[in-house]
UniProtKB/TrEMBL annotation:
Protein name: Uncharacterized protein
Positions of region (Disordered): 69-96, 196-220, 493-515
Stretches with biased composition (Basic and acidic residues): 493-502
Biological source species: Leptospira kanakyensis
Compositionally biased tracts (Acidic residues): 82-91
Length: 515
């Protein structure tokens, strides 16, 4: 019997050694992957549309350890507080902060520790409320993510503002990975427990990616979907949208318009002034910019795969709009710096002033490095970037899709920059840009058609003058007014929808000076 076993083992020695070798190598690979210090290593944990390539199609073999992970790299939680609800942050117990010491996440962990008891240390008062502001009490008293305003990135465009836009596209997937890793660490800290990201292995096959089917979804169906999800946290809305819809054909069907609707109707929100104290508006402006980072990172990665499609064109319009709003957010930043200097001891003990103080400190060095010292510096840097984005769209949009809007928006950026800088050459360039619109193909919507026709009529009455120096100050003011009010009707509809679905009016009057 023993001899038989020994003979069997001797005869099978090659297969046994091979089995042990394979198991050992797999174990070593998995162990090394989990303990890598590099945040830039390639991982495949997002929706398949991000990673599809023409040269190959990918199969993802995934083994998860610990908690189940969501698209953002965070543990799924059915009890996640929605917008308007106040979630409780963990105190970091069970979170191994030592492993991040000396890494790029060390400052993040310090910020997490510093904000874990923020609401206990500072007052969340409501004072100097304007009772005639017309702003609903449900908006005034809504939950504001003070901790995230400090810990996350309300100014995500600053770091690469001096880079050409093509560099942003080239680094988009790496930036998205770092973004997701940061969110995972934040989630771990606040839950007070460690969770491991899913281990993924990439298996490639030769051949082309499978063709995608076009999305068929009417405007009414899209509106119902967006109304239903409006109250969800913006990150959750975006993750759900990406997982459900971004796998459809980016050139055919309704996906491109759905991307536009998602951003402008749900993810881009209005901020309302309701107090004589400007810190409230600054906080709300940063609150509405808070999730611009999530959209920017995820959609930039989508753009890197969909450039040259109609969906890619819509993404470019949304990204250009983010840069415009980020420029305004920096105006709020500089204003906050000034009134923080004048804050009273009582104001310094409030949650909003302490949040603004930490935000000001957080971005001080980065803004110095980027040579953004004044609103003038911001306007010049951001208008240059916006024109770069629009020129990318103009050169890449397929079959002239929304090309007229691209030229109109480029002309608008040039004109508004000329007004702020008192530079008639920029305004002349804007007029020449608008004059190209009649000869462009009519493919897709022309959302700025009415504003363009009004400007065209003014210039025609002057004999189609192209030199801005020959245009009177009155006519320039009229053009500026058209540009400033072009979104008036859509903004009113947007306000009415948000008031109805997000901020219903309370029967009780606003009561100032209450927590």
């Amino acid at each position: 019997m023993l001899k038989g076993i020994l003979k069997f083992l001797f005869d099978s020695r090659f297969y046994i050694a091979l089995y042990i070798s394979v198991v050992s190598h797999i174990t070593l690979i998995i162990y090394s992957f989990n303990h890598s210090d590099s945040p830039y290593q390639k991982t495949f944990c997002g929706p398949p549309w991000i990673y599809e390539q023409e040269e190959e199609k990918e199969l993802s073999f995934q083994m998860s350890f610990g908690n189940s992970m969501s698209e953002t790299g965070n543990s799924d939680s059915s009890g996640e507080p929605g917008e308007g609800e106040e979630g409780e942050d963990g105190d970091g117990n069970g979170f191994s902060k030592g492993k991040y010491k000396g890494s790029q996440w060390e400052e993040l962990v310090k910020d997490l520790e510093g904000t874990s008891s923020l609401r206990k240390q500072f007052k969340n008062d409501y004072d100097q409320i304007n009772e005639n502001s017309g702003v609903a009490d449900s908006y005034i008293k809504r939950n504001r993510d003070y901790e995230d305003i400090i810990v996350k990135d309300v100014l995500p465009t600053v770091k690469g503002i001096r880079d050409p836009f093509r560099v942003d596209i080239e680094t988009a997937e790496d930036n998205l990975f770092v973004h997701k890793e940061r969110n995972r660490i934040i989630e771990e800290f606040r839950k007070g427990e460690e969770s491991s990201p899913p281990i993924t292995m990439r298996v490639s096959k030769e051949g082309e990616a499978e063709p995608k089917s076009p999305l068929s979804m009417s405007k009414e169906d899209r509106t119902r979907y967006l109304d239903k999800t409006l109250k969800q946290k913006k990150e959750k809305q975006l993750d759900e949208f990406i997982s459900r819809y971004m796998g459809y054909d980016p050139d055919k069907g309704d996906l491109s318009q759905f991307v536009r609707d998602l951003y402008y109707e749900n993810l881009q929100r209005l901020a309302y002034p309701f107090s004589g104290d400007p810190s409230y508006f600054a906080i709300d402006y940063f609150q509405e910019n808070l999730n611009k980072e999530d959209f920017l990172r995820q959609m930039m990665a989508a753009l890197s795969q969909n450039l040259g499609t109609s969906t890619g064109t819509e993404i470019l319009f949304t990204i250009e709009n983010i840069y415009e709003i980020q420029g305004r957010a920096l105006e709020q930043y500089f204003q906050a710096k000034e009134y923080l200097k004048l804050a009273t001891p009582e104001q310094k003990q409030t949650l909003r002033y302490e949040t603004l103080r930490r935000v000001e400190t957080k971005y001080k060095k980065l803004l110095q490095d980027k040579k953004l010292f004044t609103n003038k510096d911001v306007e010049e840097a951001y208008s240059k970037k916006r024109i770069d984005i629009l020129e990318t769209m103009i050169s890449k949009t397929p079959k002239g899709y929304r090309l007229k809007d691209g030229y109109f928006e480029k002309g608008r950026v040039l004109w508004e920059s000329g007004v702020l800088r008192k530079d008639s050459k920029l305004q002349t360039e804007a007029i020449k840009t608008w004059n190209r619109i009649p000869g462009l193909p009519s493919n897709g919507d022309f959302l700025n058609e009415k504003a363009y026709e009004n400007i065209e009529l003014l210039l025609r009455d002057l004999g189609n003058v192209t030199d801005a120096e020959r245009i009177s100050a009155h006519t320039k003011d009229q053009i500026e007014y058209i540009l400033r009010t072009r979104l008036g009707e859509s903004m009113m509809k947007k306000k009415e929808r948000e008031d109805k679905l997000l901020w219903p009016k309370s029967k009780k009057p606003v009561e100032p000076n209450q927590n």
